[in-house]
Design goal:
The chain has 237 residues and is mainly alpha-helical. It is built from eleven helices and two strands, in the order E-H-H-H-H-H-H-H-E-H-H-H-H. Helix 6 packs antiparallel against helix 7 and helix 10 packs antiparallel against helix 11. Helix content is 54%, strand content 3%. It has a two-stranded antiparallel sheet with strand order 1-2.
Length: 237
């Protein structure tokens, strides 16, 4: 399918991060990238979803979502400058990727939180806010697949970027992609507030409620333990 009708991050990227990183054109050490140097979209759609996220998400999850935006943009700008998508689209992915983890939503369905969250995102963007369908579907797909980590096949550009950024913030993975001065600045604007223990508790809560949840694919114990023992971010928790 052509992307001619909108730069919404639909281009396919390797799902295998090692293949992705080997193939990048800008293989260089990261440089400090401050919040002030990264544009936050100011569109009506972005403002509406920001307002929705602030209302629906806990402070801890909202701050995580914003950190993921700034870390992801730093990765894209420095390591993958040829990736083509609107900042608005990526911001929407970040703000909505954990919408399925709220107390209300995690208990509203038998579905895994990413899949239900993707449905909520699609509904909000396409029906309530009247975003272009290709953009709404891109966001929904990225939300549904942001924990779809593996070594085979492909994933969308914004789907891969949200994976890189969430793994960095949640587990300290891919630490060679983001300068620690960037972390200090981003955390200064959007504090972690003990995010590691907060998100580990959310993982365990979902697995307790839904032992079939897709989250278990990352390891029923390994995943929450890895989040809880995030040594890279420990000084900021």
């Amino acid at each position: 399918m052509s992307e001619a009708n909108g730069n919404y991050g639909w281009a396919a990227q390797p799902r295998d991060v090692s293949v992705l990183l080997e193939g990048r054109k800008n293989n260089k050490a990261p440089q400090p990238q401050h919040v002030s140097s990264i544009q936050l979209p100011d569109t009506a759609l972005a403002k509406s979803v920001l307002e929705y996220a602030r209302k629906e998400l806990s402070t801890e999850t909202f701050n995580h979502s914003m950190r993921v935006y700034y870390y992801g943009k730093a990765i894209q700008m420095q390591q993958f400058p040829d990736w083509n998508f609107t900042d608005e689209t990526y911001l929407l992915v970040c703000l909505l990727h954990d919408i399925g983890t709220t107390d209300k939503n995690i208990s509203a369905t038998h579905m895994s939180f990413e899949f239900y969250g993707g449905m909520l995102a699609l509904d909000l963007l396409s029906k309530t806010l009247h975003a272009p369908m290709k953009q709404a579907e891109s966001v929904a797909e990225a939300v549904m697949r942001h924990q779809d980590i593996g070594e085979t096949g492909k994933i969308t550009t914004v789907g891969q970027l949200i994976q890189l950024a969430t793994i960095f913030d949640n587990m300290g993975g891919h630490e060679d992609l983001v300068h620690m001065d960037t972390v200090k600045d981003v955390v200064g604007h959007y504090p972690r507030n003990k995010w590691s223990s907060c998100f580990a508790a959310t993982i365990r809560k979902e697995i307790g409620l839904k032992p079939w949840a897709h989250t278990t694919a990352l390891g029923e114990d390994d995943f929450p333990n890895g989040v809880e023992n995030n040594k890279l971010m420990e000084p900021y928790d």
